[in-house]
Amino acid sequence: MTHRTIRQFTDQPIGKPILQQLITAAQNTATSHFLQSFSIIHITDHRLRQQIAGISKQSYIDGNGELLIFLVDHHRAALAADQHDTSGLHTADKFIQGASDTLLAAQNLVATAESMDLGTVILGSILNDPMQLIKLLNLPPLVFPICGVIVGYPDQQPQLKPRMPQDLMSFENTYQLPEDWQNQWDSYDDVIREYYAMRDTNKRVESFTHLLTNGAGTTPTKRGELLAALQRQGFLLK
Q1: Pairwise CA distance, residues 165 & 186, whole Å
Q2: 120's torsion region: left (phi>0), alpha (psi -120 to 50) or beta?
Q3: Quick one: DSSP state of residue 33?
Q4: Which of 106, 114, 172, 180 is the most buried (most CB within 10 A)?
């Protein structure tokens, strides 16, 4: 209930025992068919971290905190199957299963970190150049990056971002927006405008409607290579 995205961390390391606890929490996340179809890469090489920050176009990634890259991983399954038919691992179904495992594990790590008074930021921006990231991480077939997470001791305390009214996103039995959805939407736009105008840092004029429409139209160029990158890694072939 008090989740905040932290982008500034102190230089205090979290230490190996805590990092192992966090990875254990990720491991104990619910997993489809108990396949455990994810892996984590801890980035400790400074030059590699700089290159990932360059892909993300976010300078704070090359800063304090521990950087973890979460991966869909069916490579182990393919190796274990060896002589058996592994064509099922190339399907959209298996990729979605793996992506679900990976994102749930990342969120479980985040929730655990926050329970330990650590801060986190989830990074979708690592996919701004998927082909380059795959090359940098030397990923084998049937492995694909989904998100990054930085975890560390927070060096900022940003305000909580107000969420939309539940009537606009929580329904019963079928998808059905309330009759007054436009009024609720307009009111939420006002709330978001006030939030961005009054917050401590990076004040600006902004509405939720603008965030949605602007975000939909500013996809980084290399994101257009996502499907090709997925297929090159052996996913979504069926």
Answers
A1: 11
A2: beta
A3: G
A4: 106
- Tens of pLDDT, residues 57-93: 999 999 999 999 999 999 999 998 876 777 889 999 9
Kindly report the number of other CB atoms within 10 A of residue 135's CB atom: 11
Query: For the chain, where are the alpha helices, taking DSSP H only?
Result: 16-27, 46-56, 75-81, 92-115, 130-137, 181-198, 208-216, 226-232
Q: Where in the chain is the domain with CATH 3.40.109.10?
A: 16-158
The percent helix, strand, coil of the chain (3-state, each to 5) is 50, 15, 35
* Per-residue pLDDT tens over the stretch 13-57: 999 999 999 999 999 999 999 999 999 999 999 999 999 999 999
Pick the CATH number of 16-158 from 3.10.450.50, 3.30.70.260, 3.10.150.10, 3.40.109.10: 3.40.109.10
Residue 2's Cβ-side half-sphere holds a number of Cα atoms within 13 Å equal to 9
CB 147 within 8 A of CB 122: yes
Of 64, 147, 145, 156, give the one whose Cα is nearest residue 110: 147
Q: Which two tokens stand for residue 4?
A: 């905040």
Q: Which helix (H) or strand (E) holds 40?
A: strand 38-43
Check: pTM over 0.85? Answer yes or no: yes
> What is d(CA 168, CA 209) in angstroms, rounded to the nearest whole number?
14
